[in-house]
């Protein structure tokens, strides 16, 4: 099931940097939101729709009726995710014909030379001095360089913005660069706006002196939103074994129940509980790319579409099939944390802060590999499979020629 979430007002997605009243006066916002933010909004919306006269806590926690038991098995609770799985998370743009075009983060190896696009690819070089760890791949390391005779005239700069699914397919499978109309700049999708607020004394309903702050909000342009793919696992698992690999199934009855909860409904998204409209996409609104990115998992190049947490920083405990890594294109790490609410009141505690490999990163390998989806599912190191149920580690395979 694929859904389109279209915001109707400004949004607030807090960055990992701490912000406490009195200690700071500016709350930064990130874009796009993390998969954790999206899954929380969706699961809360499903719970609210299934239990419209009760509270969310009752919908998630009560065990005295079959309806509540079924709901917990379907979307889990605070301890585990049930059968609920996010298998795709991108931006989306509604076209004039109603079709939703998926947009992906710009690949880290795609740079601009003025208006021209330059794709960096692994190449063997001698006499190069670097600080790369020598034991990563037993001397197979290659360096990301522009093509020979590329005629670079300017300082190379990262490609800012997003690329369409067709543009990403050209890069991953057809050894060509995307066209300009397949690149969507950030300013066409969203803009930042500042909002001023002040701390309040709840007991007296008066303002607190010295607690003036500003928050950075995100305003998405019309017809832009988030595309989310939802699937169900065969079993719900449990809080104790929620990290195990679980087979996805085409459970039409349960998916129909989710569709009835979400189709043409509303949810609250991000900080300050801003509203967004949810639509379950019909076949006529799906992309016509053939084959789809998800249908081919073999390649010697791996593109990360969502942030991914690895126990060794930018490297996992091990690659699938013990693949030989030869190069990587990475941007700066993305710190991702959050806040875990306690039921019944506004107390809680901060979640662990993790330094994640950002979306758009690309890894290059010596051999062709059959990559799992998501990449971090069912790995030996429990730290490396953080969040695979809810959209972390979504990746797509490709081919490169050095």
The major beta sheet can be summarized as: 9 strands, antiparallel
Alpha-beta content class: alpha+beta
* Unreliable segments of 5+ consecutive residues: 62-68
Give the overall average pLDDT.
82
Radius of gyration: 22 Å
Shape: globular
Measured by DSSP, the beta-strand proportion falls in: 25-35%
Report, as a whole number of angstroms, the end-to-end distance.
37 Å
Give the total of beta strands.
25
The helix count comes to 6
Q: Roughly what percent helix?
A: 10-25%
Chart the SSEs and their pairings.
Elements: E1 2-7, E2 26-27, H1 35-50, H2 56-61, H3 66-75, E3 84-94, E4 100-105, E5 110-113, E6 116-119, E7 121-123, E8 143-145, E9 157-158, E10 162-164, H4 165-173, E11 183-184, H5 186-189, E12 190-201, E13 206-220, E14 224-233, E15 248-249, H6 252-262, E16 265-269, E17 274-280, E18 298-304, E19 325-329, E20 334-336, E21 339-341, E22 348-350, E23 354-356, E24 362-370, E25 395-398
Parallel strand pairs: 2-13
Antiparallel strand pairs: 1-14, 1-17, 3-4, 3-14, 4-10, 5-6, 5-9, 7-8, 10-11, 12-13, 14-15, 16-17, 18-24, 18-25, 19-24, 20-23, 21-22
Q: Could you characterize the architecture of this molecule?
A:
This protein is 14% helix and 33% strand. It has six helices and 25 strands. The protein has helices at residues 35-50, 56-61, 66-75, 165-173, 186-189, 252-262; strands spanning 2-7, 26-27, 84-94, 100-105, 110-113, 116-119, 121-123, 143-145, 157-158, 162-164, 183-184, 190-201, 206-220, 224-233, 248-249, 265-269, 274-280, 298-304, 325-329, 334-336, 339-341, 348-350, 354-356, 362-370, 395-398. The radius of gyration is 22 Å and the shape is globular. The two termini are 37 Å apart. The relative contact order is 0.21.
